[in-house]
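Renewal narrative, Specific Aim 1. Our central claim is that a sequence can be written position by position from structural information alone. The example that follows is taken directly from our test logs and has not been curated for this report. It begins with the structure tokens describing the chain, in the order in which they were read.
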């Protein structure tokens, strides 16, 4: 009702824009503003079988039907052999499940396989279900497969299967190409096969030896070809060229400097708008709900950025590239697993793959390029090769990372944010308010791809292995940097020319900063940064004397800090979150994470911390803390709020980029050094990354 009234009557003329709270004129408030009338999803026919409709789009391509193009120069072509084979298979599977059935054989089978996957059914139970449906429930002569094996064979014929590649148990090498038939690793000598611990014999199943590890690789080319085999998806893959509005506002990666720079440096690639730009994301997760044995499997996912904003980041449009099997993280040896993907990306750039365009009924050579990777901070180290630990943990500052080792806390802290201020700023000479020193350093230089290649030139071809005897040992102290390897992505010819090769995960940074803030102001045992060791570090550094620990007998007394909430204020804070009500879909039920009795927050997810930091924290702590604490915390909240907007403007990004060093310096005036871990340092680089790569939700 509200929506219809807004459409009919419009918003009231006296409405005041709350620009002090981050609202900006002309900013789209939802994805719906991007959607045109032709892209509105149908509601009435959601359950209708879509296979015949897809086939109606495809059949003219190989049946020879003519399409009225309105142009005498337009020449239709026969689909290439791969496309023709795929269309023929679809036509074969278009047959109804049984006589007078609304559902086709293919649609019924795909839906059943989807339910099997979501419901975690075993293969045997799925076969039993198919037999019961075919023999007892469906009419005689039904086309439903009789077993899971038959259903899987159909899916494989459609090109939706994967390749199995055996891997050395120490992550030294892949058993593929020329090494396909080796029995043992040529690097560490470990056997390719699993062995029975009782008798030392090679394990076997159904007469076949069992490999120690198997990489599941999903070929990329067939999946990119599928995107152009329907006229609907083909037009969507050209959205960035045909329908994107270039008005200086960044709404999509196509608006970013990184995208435009790639087009300028590689004009032959840019001339074909159907060429695909990809992003790569990877991280480890525990696939089992409850397991005493820790297990981490690493999916590698590709995101096609050609799609419009309302479809680009939908889960159904992600392309699963590989599943890396590991009881533990592959670490730097992830490059070994990425070899098939990198080889295919090189081929896609240099040679391309012949693809049939269903909208123009013509074949063309499809090329693809990888724009960047997206990872949390630990995975950033694995893919980039720069270790994100130690005194040089920041990959953006590189060798110019400045940190201090805390004597009592035994951790590195990163507090030198005054170097990012203008050279004539008063705070650069203010010793008493900060760490007792003047700041003379300039901001670090942003390194290009060629600069990185010069630094890692001596690391080309090192051995990446889990076997400590074979792994090449790198000394960061002797090198003066944190490089562990030369990343395999530099094998891509264009990788060194990219402006943003590896992106920081803003959501991961938000969660860690939110945990730091909540743990410290609520003084949560085990999560607060304000401990006895951190107070003794203040004493050792001879700063913030009012917070130095006071020794009384054998015990120490910690003076109350201005950033710590009193018991009454804690009760107000938790009561606020407990009684919180938010619109449906805005966040999870944060009130369920609140324990009023023990005054604790339990089970907060990354998105919960994102919502708390950007929207709830300024409301929850207002009137409780002094201005010197409250002001930088609210500024930090506004920073992430503006950074996470759906539409980004370069002038606003430059504004928050100039403001974030001041905010961090204000925090440094109040909080103790232990608070400033690497995660609190990283926001200094986020606005610049957004200027280069575009909106952070991509």
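The sequence written for that structure reads:
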């Amino acid at each position: 009702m509200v929506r219809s009234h807004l459409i009919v009557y419009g918003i009231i003329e006296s409405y005041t824009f709350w620009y002090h709270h981050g609202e900006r004129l002309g900013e789209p408030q939802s994805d719906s503003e991007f959607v045109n009338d032709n892209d509105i999803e149908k509601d009435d026919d959601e359950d209708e079988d879509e296979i015949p409709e897809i086939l109606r789009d495809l059949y003219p391509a190989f049946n020879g039907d003519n399409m009225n193009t309105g142009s005498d120069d337009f020449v239709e072509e026969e689909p290439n052999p791969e496309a023709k084979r795929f269309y023929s298979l679809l036509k074969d599977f278009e047959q109804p499940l049984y006589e007078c059935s609304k559902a086709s054989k293919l649609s019924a089978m795909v839906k059943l396989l989807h339910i099997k996957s979501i419901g975690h059914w075993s293969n045997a139970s799925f076969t039993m279900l198919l037999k019961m449906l075919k023999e007892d429930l469906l009419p005689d002569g039904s086309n439903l497969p009789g077993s899971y094996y038959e259903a899987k064979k159909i899916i494989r014929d459609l090109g939706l299967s994967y390749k199995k590649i055996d891997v050395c148990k120490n992550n030294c090498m892949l058993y593929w190409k020329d090494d396909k038939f080796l029995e043992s690793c040529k690097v560490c000598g470990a056997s390719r096969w699993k062995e029975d611990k009782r008798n030392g014999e090679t394990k076997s199943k159904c007469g076949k030896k069992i490999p120690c590890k198997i990489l599941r690789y999903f070929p990329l080319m067939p999946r990119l070809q599928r995107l152009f085999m329907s006229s609907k998806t083909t037009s969507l893959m050209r959205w960035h060229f045909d329908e994107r509005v270039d008005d200086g506002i960044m709404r999509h990666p196509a608006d970013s400097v990184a995208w435009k720079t790639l087009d300028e440096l590689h004009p032959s690639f840019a001339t074909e708008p159907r060429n695909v730009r990809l992003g790569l994301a990877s991280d480890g997760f525990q696939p089992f709900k409850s397991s005493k044995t820790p297990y981490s499997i690493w999916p590698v996912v590709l995101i096609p950025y050609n799609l419009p904003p309302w479809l680009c980041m939908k889960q159904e449009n992600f392309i699963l590239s590989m599943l890396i099997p590991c009881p533990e993280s592959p670490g730097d040896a992830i490059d070994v697993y990425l070899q098939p993907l990198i080889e295919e990306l090189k081929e896609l750039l240099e040679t391309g793959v012949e693809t049939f365009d269903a909208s123009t009924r013509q074949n063309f050579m499809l090329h693809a390029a990888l724009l960047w990777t997206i990872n949390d901070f630990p995975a950033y180290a694995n893919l980039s090769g720069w270790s994100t630990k130690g005194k040089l943990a920041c990959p953006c500052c590189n060798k110019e990372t400045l940190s201090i080792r805390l004597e009592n806390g035994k951790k590195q802290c990163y507090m030198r944010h005054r170097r990012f201020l203008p050279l004539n700023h008063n705070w650069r000479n203010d010793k008493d308010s900060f760490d007792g020193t003047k700041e003379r350093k300039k901001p670090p230089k942003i390194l290009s791809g060629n600069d990185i290649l010069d630094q890692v030139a001596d690391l080309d071809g090192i051995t990446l292995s889990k076997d400590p005897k074979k792994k090449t040992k790198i000394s960061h102290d002797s090198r003066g940097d944190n490089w562990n390897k030369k990343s395999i992505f530099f094998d891509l010819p264009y990788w060194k020319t990219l402006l943003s090769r590896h992106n920081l995960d803003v959501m991961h940074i938000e969660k860690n900063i939110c945990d730091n803030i909540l743990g410290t102001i609520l003084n949560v045992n085990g999560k607060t940064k304000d401990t006895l060791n951190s107070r003794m570090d203040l004493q050792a550094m001879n700063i913030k004397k009012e917070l130095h620990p006071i020794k009384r007998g054998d015990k120490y007394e910690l003076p109350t800090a201005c950033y710590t909430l009193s018991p009454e204020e804690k009760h107000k804070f938790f009561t606020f979150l407990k009684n919180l009500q938010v619109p449906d879909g805005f966040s999870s039920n944060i009130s369920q994470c609140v324990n009023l009795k023990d005054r604790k927050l339990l089970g907060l997810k990354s998105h919960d911390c994102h919502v708390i930091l950007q929207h709830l924290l300024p409301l929850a702590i207002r009137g409780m803390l002094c201005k010197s604490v409250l002001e930088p915390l609210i500024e930090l909240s506004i920073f992430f709020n503006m950074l996470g907007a759906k539409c980004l403007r370069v002038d606003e990004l430059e504004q928050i980029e100039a403001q974030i060093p001041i905010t961090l310096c204000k925090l440094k005036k109040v909080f103790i050094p232990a608070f400033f871990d690497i995660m609190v340092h990283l926001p200094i680089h986020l606005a610049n990354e957004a200027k280069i790569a575009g909106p952070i939700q991509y």
